[in-house]
Amino acid sequence: MKKINFSILIKLAVLVFLLATFFLQYEFLFATRIVLVVFVLTILTAEIKKDYFAAHKVAFILLNTIIMAALIGSILFDNSTVNTPANNRDFLIPVFVYTLMVIEYKDLYNKTSTENLS
Q1: d(Cα 15, Cα 118) in Å, to the nearest integer?
Q2: In this structure, which of 2, 17, 77, 82 has its CB flanked by the most CB atoms within 10 Å?
Q3: For this UniProt entry, which segments traverse the membrane (predicted)?
Q4: d(CA 95, CA 92)
Q5: What count of other Cβ atoms lies within 10 Å of the Cβ of residue 34?
Q6: Domain-by-domain residue ranges, the chain?
Q7: Percentage of the chain surpassing pLDDT 90?
């Protein structure tokens, strides 16, 4: 039987959760949720194509930089279109996304370094 990769299952669960939020509160941070779905799909692709992204770390960093810029821009856009003042918790979203990027990059770095040792 094939080994189950729990990190892929967790990323799929996060993707399902993000897609479910479109039905729960469709008017709150709409553009930000779209960017977060793209981010989860990017991380899921990096997990599936780990060999490619381990060899091309610059592509992974470039993708994540573009997503981080789009995420900050979408938060500013979402808060500017709503008549209520900006919520400080909204700006913690890029901090969490950056943390996930660092974890994924370290995972790619460890994969490359262990392959070079063998």
Answers
A1: 35
A2: 77
A3: 7-24, 30-46, 58-77
A4: 5
A5: 14
A6: 6-117
A7: 15
- Phi, psi (rounded to 5 degrees) for 55: -80, -30
Is residue 82 helix, strand or coil? Answer: coil
Separation between Cα atoms, residue 48 and residue 14, nearest integer Å? 16
What pLDDT, on the 0 to 100 scale, is given for residue 4?
A: 65
Residue 18: CA atoms inside 13 Å, Cβ hemisphere, count?
19
Tokens standing for residue 83: 């008549």
Sign of CA dihedral 72, 58, 7, 106: negative
Percentage with pLDDT > 70 across the chain: 86
In sign, the C-alpha dihedral spanning 81, 22, 87, 42 is negative
